[in-house]
Amino acid sequence: MDRKQLIMEKALELFAKQGIESTSVQQITEYCGISKGAFYLTFKSKSELIEGIIDYFMTDIIFEVDRVVKHTSSNEDLLYLYYHTVFQTFQKHSDFAKLLVKEQAHPPNEEQLLKLAAYDEELGRLLETIVDKLYGGRIEHTKYDLIFSMKGFIKSYLELFIFFNAPINLDKLAKSLVEKTNILAENITIPFISSELKLLPPTDADPDKLVQMVQSKAASLDESLEKESLEILTEQLVNKTHPLAIIKGLITNISHHPDCKGVAFLLDKHFFK
């Protein structure tokens, strides 16, 4: 585990236990067993650390949902796999889920708010793809209400991870939400959210920042197939010399590494938008 990931994971444990405001950089460095100097070589501030945590965990969630949308051939399974994947990923990152729920009473700063809004809209885009596949044009006038409700299901049931200590049956939860979603899809008659009220999707990542992100991730890895793939992808971002089939294969290589899912998602979006 590299230093950046160590700081994020240990800080997240502290944030989940005692809250963001009550956790100091000093406490984080002591918990990590590093110096303050090492912390500030990695993050300029606690605020930048929080933004890094949001990026790290939300890109993993979006990556997993995107994979479901792209690789599920059966519409019958798509909605179930969507809900199951979202909650399974939040369960895997339970400290992050706790942070999202517990810190709702403490508004994030503008930069953090923009990041959360961008990820929320990316999830909305994936949900729109799912809804279009499942219900087509017959709910065109109500689909944004349905998407808003589906996102509400996620936020509401996420509290189960915070307030209940008993094991959660993800299979039953996913099936229950599929049933609720289908009932809404077939019975909404008075939509409130229209295409005019729908927020615009997030802009693509800045190309220069994407190059820096890929270079940084490559530098953090030991010699491996993933590291070599990231280095080739960095060149491709600048020179665009390889065919898209090769780029797809390189992105697939890095997507199997647990620390590269976020970068894989952004690269896939960049090259295959």
UniProtKB/TrEMBL annotation:
The lineage of its organism: Bacteria, Bacillati, Bacillota, Bacilli, Bacillales. GO terms for molecular function: DNA binding. Residues 24-43 bind DNA. Residues 1-61 form the HTH tetR-type domain. This is TetR/AcrR family transcriptional regulator. It comes from Mangrovibacillus cuniculi. The keyword Repressor applies. Gene3D superfamilies: Homeodomain-like (1.10.10.60), Tetracycline Repressor, domain 2 (1.10.357.10). Keywords: DNA-binding, Repressor. Signal peptide: none annotated.
